[in-house]
Design brief:
The protein has helices spanning about 20-30, 40-45, 55-70, 75-95, 115-135, 150-160, 185-200, 215-225, 240-250, 255-260, 270-280, 300-310, 315-330, and strands at about 10-15, 95-100, 135-145, 165-175, 200-205, 230, 250-255, 285-290. The chain is of the alpha/beta class. An eight-stranded parallel sheet has the order 1-2-3-4-5-6-7-8. The two termini are about 30 Å apart. It binds zinc ion (ZN).
């Protein structure tokens, strides 16, 4: 069992999957948001990824896009969301260092709301929670694979602009059908990531999250974008070449056990165990994270316990992954 006094770090947690349903419900009502359900219990089911409703990563992302992101699309809503998540992760799991990620352009109703207002509001929510709970936090802006390059460029500019205020990195997220195989845009993304690095922003990329695209996805991301960290990467563990290249590049993996099981990035705990073993043997450094604690009905301490109970990792390995997270954080 993980030492209850050990403070934890969550480096991969989405604002869209981490706000308690009762808080989202309250925000929705506060804003007069028209919901497709009439009772709280129906609403709770709507914003939670129940195993029977999730066959793939696409199903999982659909829940985020359709309701949660819309409800969080105002300055007041994003401020409260960020504030509530940081406090809740501290109270439930002793998370004292947290990097929260979201796409501000998926919180401004397609340009109806001002992007800077959304970002300032998120930073206010973060500041308040950090003061109240004495924790450290930072925001990561998620670029979207399905966005045109020009929109993602605006997100990088905003991340650079708010670097000194608490935006600590950029991410590239979304289903890998829109991956870097868009050859003509690769150079553009390479440039965006270089600009982020030059501005002292951390870089991470979602990849290796679906069994079919995992290996080419991870290899392309390492070669073209060379991020400091990879979100997931777990589905590429079967490829010796991919594992070796992750190790050689020193890229840190952000593993999210419940998420990887729910989206079928790995088929079961045994496959997850084999992946972690492959990473251990190759010297790949990895961290344990939640991805979407409310969406997945989990919390960070629960994620560690899941791996320890199934004997996929030892106590020492669990403690080492906390230390890796502390070393790999983008928060200075
Ligand atoms: Zn994620």
């Amino acid at each position: 069992m993980l030492d209850p006094a050990l403070e934890l770090c969550d480096l991969h947690i989405h604002v869209g999957g981490a706000v308690a349903p009762h808080v989202l419900w309250s925000i929705a009502h506060e804003q007069g948001f028209k919901l497709p359900v009439s009772t709280y219990w129906e609403f709770r089911d709507l914003v939670t990824a129940k195993p029977e409703n999730i066959a793939s990563l696409d199903d999982y992302l659909a829940i985020l896009h359709h309701w949660t992101e819309k409800i969080q699309s105002s300055p007041a809503a994003i401020e409260r969301s960020v504030y509530e998540i940081i406090g809740k992760e501290f109270r439930s799991s002793g998370v004292s260092l947290i990097e929260l990620r979201f796409n501000p352009m998926k919180r401004n109703l397609g340009g109806e709301r001002d992007l800077d207002h959304i970002i300032h509001a998120a930073l206010r929510g973060m500041d308040r929670a950090c003061l109240e709970y004495s924790v450290r936090a930072g925001l990561i802006f998620c670029l979207a694979r399905e966005f045109p390059l020009e929109l993602n460029e605006i997100l990088v500019k905003k991340a650079v602009k708010y670097r000194a205020r608490g935006v600590v990195g950029i991410d590239l997220a979304g289903p890998e059908v829109h991956t870097l195989e868009l050859r003509d845009e690769v150079a553009g993304y390479r440039d965006l990531f270089a600009r982020a690095r030059a501005a002292s922003l951390g870089t991470t990329v979602h990849t290796g999250e679906t069994p079919y695209t995992a290996v080419p996805g991870v290899l392309a991301v390492l070669k073209e974008l060379a991020p400091a960290r990879i979100g997931h990467g777990v589905a590429a563990a079967k490829s010796e070449e991919a594992v070796r290249k992750i190790a050689e590049s020193g890229t840190v993996l952000e593993i999210c056990p419940s998420s990887n099981l729910r989206t079928h990035a790995v088929e079961d705990l045994q496959e997850l165990g084999r992946a972690l073993q492959a990473f251990e043997q190759a010297g790949v450094r990895y961290t344990i994270n939640t991805d979407g604690p409310y969406l997945l009905n989990t919390h960070l301490r629960g994620e560690y316990q899941l791996l320890l109970d199934a004997q996929l990792i030892t106590d020492a390995q669990a403690e080492r992954s906390v230390a890796v997270a502390r070393a790999a954080t983008f928060i200075r």
